[in-house]
Amino acid sequence: MPSIELEYPKQPYSKVKRYDSRASYALETIHEIINTSPILHVSFNIPDSPFPMVLPMIGQMGSFERPSADTGDVLELYLHGYVSSRLMNLARKQPSQQEEGEKGLPITVAASHVDGLVLSLTPNSHSYNYRSAVLFGRAELVDDPEEKLYAMRLITDSVVRGRYENTRNPPTPAETQSTAILRLRPAAGSAKVRSGGPSDDRADTADGALLERVWTGVVPLRCEAGDPLPGPYNRVAEVPGYLEEWRRGFNEEMGRRRGGV
């Protein structure tokens, strides 16, 4: 963890304008939201298309050069996809003569968590308790075999901690060749977080009859890891310790987040 809190630079395209008091540009906040999101939405432009493309993808932030770096450090985002997908092909076709700092395919990555439903006195005052983050940057394909394996392990362990080591690994040459890893070096990013209870206009909170009639408060939401269900050809009698440990830890963390809404 750095001795000072690092932040992304505020750019015109990344600066939060509405409810800017909820904004954060801290690397740790943004990276934590990205890394705990099971699905990332990746947007990019397609030549000759009137519409931008958005893909749901799996990804994780890390540092190949500094594997022990935590979420408060400068990190790259690794995205996993099929080698001949449209996104990977576009990244592959990017000109190699671009200036330093301008190399790669421009993409935007978004992640969101909903922690609670905020029920207020009026429809317009309803909200969510949420954590959202957006990263902006240029992405390039990972060609180095060691970095590619690092990213595949990083992404696999982001699904269930310790899973990579407890599978048939490393991937076969055919598996490696069919998988592409895209590395995003963020140029800017921002997060937006809301927590707490409802907030209504003073005129409504002064209306005693309205307060007596309309229930207000927060309905917490959480994702929960259930009991593992064995697959049709599973021959391992008991749930492995690493999996059960991860499941308990995941649910405890979700419970803590639920208590903070």
User: H/E order of the elements?
Assistant: EHEEEHEEHHEHHEH
What proportion strand? 25-35%
Arrangement of strands in the largest sheet = 2-3-4-7-6-5
Portion in helices: 25-40%
Q: What is the fourth-level CATH superfamily of the largest domain? A: Electron Transport, Fmn-binding Protein, Chain A
Give the class-level CATH name of the largest domain. Mainly Beta
Total strands: the figure is 8
- Number of helical runs? 7
Query: Could you tell me the radius of gyration in angstroms?
Result: 21 Å
Distance between the termini: 26 Å
The averaged pLDDT comes out at 94
Describe this structure in words.
25% of the residues lie in helices and 28% in strands. With 261 residues, the chain is of the alpha+beta class. It has a six-stranded antiparallel β-barrel. β2 (40-44) and β3 (53-62) form a beta hairpin.
Which features would summarize this protein structure in a list?
261 residues, alpha+beta, Pnp Oxidase, Chain A, 6-stranded antiparallel barrel, globular
